[in-house]
Amino acid sequence: MVNKSIIIIGAGIAGLSTGCYGRMNGYNTRIFEMHNIPGGLCTSWQRKWYTIDGCLHWLVGSGPESSFYKIWKELGAVQKPQIIDHEEFMRFESADGKTFILYTGIDRLEKHMLEIAPEDKDIIKEFIKGIRACTRFELPVDKAPELYGFIDGLKFLIKMLPFMLSVRKWNLISTQDFAARFKNPLLCEAFPVIWLPEFPISFLLMTLAWMHKKVAGYPVGSSLEFSRNIEQRYRDLGGEIHYNSRVTKILVENDRAVGVKLEDGSVHKADYIISAADGYTTIFNMLDGRYADETIKGYYDNLPIFPPLIHVALGVNRSFEEIPHTVTGINFPLDQPITIAGKEWRRIGVHFYNFDPTLAPAGKSVVKVMFFSDYAYWKSLRDDLNRYNAEKEHIADQVVAVLDRRFPGLASKVEMHDVATPVTFHRYTGNWQGTFEGWMITPKTHSLRMSKTLPGLDNFYMAGQWVEPGGGLPPAAFSGRNVVQILCKRDKKPFLTTIP
User: Three-class SS of residue 384?
Assistant: First the structure.
């Protein structure tokens, strides 16, 4: 029997995952990637002696107690890296000199919050109780939800019953609305900064629960190296990957996807086409919008996306040993506001990568500041490269100046600076509007589920963050896994996995 073939568009985490599981199950797989490296948005880049990480802060499933750990092992992602479990998620400093530390240990966090805000005892206890409840919850990941039968659904319901009321309650409360419940001004100000204010507070509860269990640690080494581990697993399984190979069209005959056309004009055929590339580009450019119904058009017209980011990275000839290791950094107020890409900022967050020795030479550190920004602003600006580059230099100068006031002597130690804009991320990954995680989850959209197929088009599937609202690496990985399960079911063959 001749094995069926799959063409996968994109070598991000979703595409690599699809390729790995495709090979584990006997499919002939080829990945076509527009860039010359794997990873997509899970990437990093080098400037002088420094490596700038563009993705990972923590990895859900980094420890054996997580149900997701098995998937990372199947993908060869966690066999090599050292995992660091930070004691602090972030530090928030107020204008009057007070500090709130979001500890990753539940008991320590509870004690700290009660010391800061005894007047908020009841809501603090409720918050901590929510985190503790989340430590007992593990999302089943072995079977694709699309393949659930009645018994599967019943088992899932029974498993979820102890958590349903709590999860529903926290899913419907945004981080901003939860923060408004505090009487204490420090906590009230800190919480919308800790997390995206529009996000359901449930996501913060789950993240802190994972970190408490030490299953959401930081893998030492860059995001690109993490992606390369999965790429190597794919190659070891016998998969083909073609870089500098941008897909421009998905070929369709009689409403069946049959192949792809590359930018160089070459045509490649397969039994199945799976796009793990940008959703908008796939649906409206590669397929010319022919299989987009009103629901799909509504997603791209109306759903909020994660706001694109400006990454400002500095290579500093300083170890910053005195700075505590945190997951997302230190957030502090500015003595005077700065304007970044047309938006005024009165506080910033700074992340010191002084805990990862692979990113900088001994005695040196990478320091990074990120700002939410607007893709249209940068797209327009880049029409004039001189203005575009001047704006990036101006941003870097402002960041160095404010960091030097907060951390005296920093400016004189800066050996490298690099500014990546939303346009940068769009150029290298194709991701719509330069966003970093696709669809944003809000209390109104938390239960949204998207199809991995398009109406009226056979032999075609999608994987990745544009069909997994909320984004992130785990959904990207298991969407690839799930798509291959769906193919195995369709082809009447058992779904198989192996661990190297």
Answer: coil
Q: What is the radius of gyration, based on Cα positions, of the chain?
A: 23
Q: Which residue segment(s) compose the domain that 354 sits in? A: 309-432
Q: Cα–Cα–Cα angle for 36, 38, 43, nearest 5°? A: 105
In which element (H, E) is residue 236 found? Answer: helix 223-236
- Cβ burial, residue 77 (10 Å; 0-12/13-18/19+): buried
Q: What is the pLDDT of residues 222-255, one digit of tens each?
A: 999 999 999 999 999 999 999 999 999 999 999 9
The total number of structural domains in the chain stands at 3
Residue 383 in domain: yes
The answer as to whether 24 is a domain residue is yes
Question: Rounded CA gap, 287 and 280, in Å?
Answer: 10
Residues 347 and 420 in one domain: yes
Verify that 294 and 313 share a domain, yes or no.
Answer: no
End-to-end CA distance of the chain: 26
Q: Is the pTM of this model over 0.90?
A: yes
CB count within 10 Å of CB 423 equals 20
pLDDT digits (tens, 9 = 90+) for 317-342: 999 999 999 999 999 999 999 999 99
